[in-house]
Every structure is written in structure tokens, then in C-alpha cells.
Design a protein that fits this description.
304 residues; disordered N terminus; alpha+beta
Length: 304
């Protein structure tokens, strides 16, 4: 439906001092704090995790060497979505000198809507990361955050808490230790480390006290803040305003090929005129996907 003069009567009146409602500040590209971005030239992308070898055994004198098998562990698939939105102006609105002001104003609103949608979709991967439903499973057949990510060796890795706990010194230290105990598909330690704490707005002050003070938080002891002193969360914290759980918090890790953002078609804008109506139409369109390949690229908690 085209935007007509009836919807914009005030803008036709002389003496109008100000139009407002489309100039709100917006949050930046917060997805870049979580995802690695890559380009894609296909309708979807797949990434396969490989299994290495187990620890080398002792070879007794005169005995045969033992041979091991490498194999594929699982495959992660990224299905790109097309995101598009537009608006149109009637021929009469254009004739009454609304074209220049409205096209500039509403194309800015269109950009805002597209940017907002991208951040919501990026955060949805974390927001749905605990949902035990096939629609939200990763390549290994479990949700992003699970206590039982299966391994080729028969063991499991956990990238969440067995009993959910709120963000505090104890829970953050436990997460750092848990990440250090992760293994590869054959049970070999991988020396993983946290990089950045990701929190909703409700936890930003807790994060500041935990990661930006030199002494322990909330105690009368004159102890150092071991998390800060050890550089346990090397990149500090970031606030994501699109997280829906006020108690949830997450840690990005240095495990490669974790959280991925594939761009199939970058944001583009176009316009054209309709011959029959004389209306002018504007459109924004992009195509992308958010997801994860290796779930060890992220650790998460829902809080207590």
C-alpha cells in the first residue's frame, strides 16, 4: 500500500515546525562482537568438523605400530535468509512537493528497520541456544549450549552449566575452568580460553565490577581480582541489547570456526516507478545467515 496524502496531512500544512519520530539513535552492529563474518556465493554453506587422532601409545620393542583413523565428526549447515522491506509514495504526494523530504526521511527509516532486524536475528542464535528442539539443533544434534556435545571418542564436552547460576565471581571462574578442560573429538585437551563476556543491559554493571576492578568484588578481603589479574577474559565485556534473558550471559572463546555470519548479498537499495499508478517504490534487500559450526566457539548460561 502506498503512502498517500491522507496519511501525511500535517506535512502539507504551512508553518509546520518539526517532524520527529524517525531520528532516534540506534544501536550499532553488535553482532560483530560475537560472529566472524564471511562472504558466500552459494544458496547455503556447509562446514564439516574433522576428527584428529587419539594420544600416541607406547610402542613396545618388536611390536607393530598402531594405526589410527581420521574421520568427519559432523557438518554444520547455514541456510541464507532474504530480508527485504520497502515503501511507496503515491503520485499525488509526489506532485504536492513531498517527494524530496519524504524519500530522504523514510529511506533512513528503512535503513533503521533493516539494521534492527539483523541484530535481532543475530541475537536469536544465543536466545534460542538452550532450546531443546530440532529446529535449533546444530550439526552435532544438540542445542548450541549443551552439557553433552557428543565426541567421536565417545565422550562429551559441555559449554554450559550443569546447574544454572547467576553471573558472579564464582560462576565466572567456574566457566573459565570448564573451558580450559574442553577436548577435541579424540579426547585431547585443546587449551581453549575465553575471550569476551557478552551480557544483556541488565548485567552490565555486574560485568563492570567483575572485570574492571583490581580487588575482589563484594568482600572485605584485601585480595586481588584473580580474573582481572590473570587476564582470564582477555577482551573484557560487551553489552548486547537484543538478548532477551535478563539473567543470561555468554563467553566467546578462541576456538576457531565457532560463531559464523555468512553474507550472501550485501544490503542494497533500489527504487522504481509504477506506470499504472504513478507511485514510486523504494526497496531495501539483503541476504545472510547466522549460526555456528563448532559449538565450542561459545559458552553460555541462562543464570539462576
Amino acid at each position: 500500500m502506498a503512502i498517500s496524502r491522507a496519511q501525511l496531512l500535517k506535512e502539507l500544512l504551512p508553518g509546520l515546525n518539526a517532524l520527529f519520530g524517525l531520528e532516534y539513535a540506534r544501536y550499532g552492529e553488535q553482532h560483530k562482537e560475537i560472529y566472524d563474518t564471511e562472504t558466500s556465493e552459494r544458496s547455503f554453506e556447509e562446514e564439516t568438523k574433522l576428527s584428529g587422532f587419539s594420544a600416541a601409545p607406547v610402542k613396545n620393542e618388536g611390536s607393530a605400530i598402531r594405526y589410527d583413523n581420521a574421520q568427519e565428526a559432523f557438518t554444520a549447515r547455514y541456510n541464507h535468509e532474504t530480508i527485504a522491506l520497502g515503501f511507496s509514495l503515491t503520485e499525488e504526494a509526489i506532485e504536492d512537493n513531498l517527494y524530496d523530504s519524504l524519500s530522504a526521511r523514510y529511506t533512513k527509516a528503512l535503513a533503521r528497520a533493516m539494521a534492527y532486524t539483523k541484530q535481532v536475528k543475530a541475537a536469536a542464535v544465543l536466545n534460542n541456544g538452550f532450546t531443546n528442539s530440532a529446529a535449533y539443533y546444530g550439526g552435532d544434534g544438540v542445542p548450541l549450549f549443551s552439557t553433552a556435545h557428543p565426541l567421536v571418542s565417545g565422550g562429551t564436552n559441555s559449554n554450559t552449566q550443569s546447574t544454572m547460576a547467576d553471573l558472579n565471581e564464582t560462576s565466572l571462574e567456574a566457566a573459565v575452568i570448564q573451558i580450559a578442560q574442553w577436548t577435541d573429538e579424540r579426547g585431547l585437551l585443546i587449551a581453549a580460553k575465553p575471550k569476551k563476556l557478552v551480557v544483556p543491559p541488565q548485567l552490565q554493571f555486574v560485568a563492570t565490577r567483575l572485570l574492571e576492578t583490581q580487588l575482589r568484588v563484594g568482600t572485605t578481603d584485601n585480595d586481588i581480582n584473580a580474573i582481572v589479574n590473570n587476564g582470564s577474559v582477555s577482551e573484557g565485556y560487551t553489552v548486547n541489547n537484543f538478548l532477551t534473558d535478563p539473567n543470561g550471559y555468554f563467553l566467546t572463546t578462541d576456538v576457531p570456526n565457532g560463531m559464523k555470519h555468512f553474507v550472501r548479498t550485501p544490503l542494497s537499495n533500489s527504487m522504481d516507478g509504477d506506470f499504472d499508478t504513478g507511485n514510486v517504490r523504494y526497496k531495501s534487500r539483503e541476504r545472510y545467515s547466522f549460526g555456528w559450526s563448532d559449538p565450542l566457539g561459545m559458552w553460555g548460561s541462562q543464570g539462576a
